Amino acid sequence: MRYVPFGKTGLTVSEVGFGGIPIIRLDEDMAVTVLRRAYELGITLYDTANAYRDSEKKIGQALGDVRDKIILATKTTRRDAPGALEQLENSLRMMKTDYIDIYQLHR
């Protein structure tokens, strides 16, 4: 796997990232298996959103023990501070982490 700078953020990420939408179709055990395999293959960037149903929960379950070795990106659909904060707090809880590396406005 090749690793590259992520713009001017100071973060280094795998050239190939993992998008969280496809794992919503998988049961939790299969999603964990897929995510762990992606990590074993060197993927360090995982992108998801509150809107992707249980994707964040599955990512937290699969990768919580390697949190310090991955980059988590998630999104909010909210455009008001209280709403965005509520979704951020939900993301933190679901992914079992105390920080998000990249927080984006969805859509």
List the helices and strands and how they pair.
Blueprint lengths: L2 E3 L6 E3 L2 E3 L8 H13 L4 E3 L7 H9 L7 E6 L4 H14 L7 E4 L2
Parallel strand pairs: 3-4, 4-5, 5-6
Antiparallel strand pairs: 1-2
Helix pairs in contact: 1-2
Tags for this model:
four-stranded parallel β-sheet, TIM Barrel, alpha/beta, 107 residues, two-stranded antiparallel ribbon
Query: What is the straight-line distance between the termini?
Result: 29 Å
Query: What's the gyration radius in Å?
Result: 13 Å
The name CATH uses for the topology is TIM Barrel
Largest sheet: 4 strands, parallel
Which CATH top level class fits? Alpha Beta
Residue share in β-strands: 15-25%
* Proportion of helical residues: 25-40%
Structural class comes to: alpha/beta
Tell me the count of domains: 1
Low-confidence stretches: none
Assigned CATH superfamily: NADP-dependent oxidoreductase domain
Q: Tell me the number of helical segments per DSSP (H or I, 4 or more residues long).
A: 3
> How many individual β-strands?
6
- Strand line-up of the largest beta sheet: 3-4-5-6
Structure overview:
The structure is a single chain. The chain contains three helices and six strands. It has about 110 residues and is α/β, with parallel strands linked by helices. It has one domain: NADP-dependent oxidoreductase domain (TIM Barrel, Alpha-Beta Barrel), CATH 3.20.20.100.
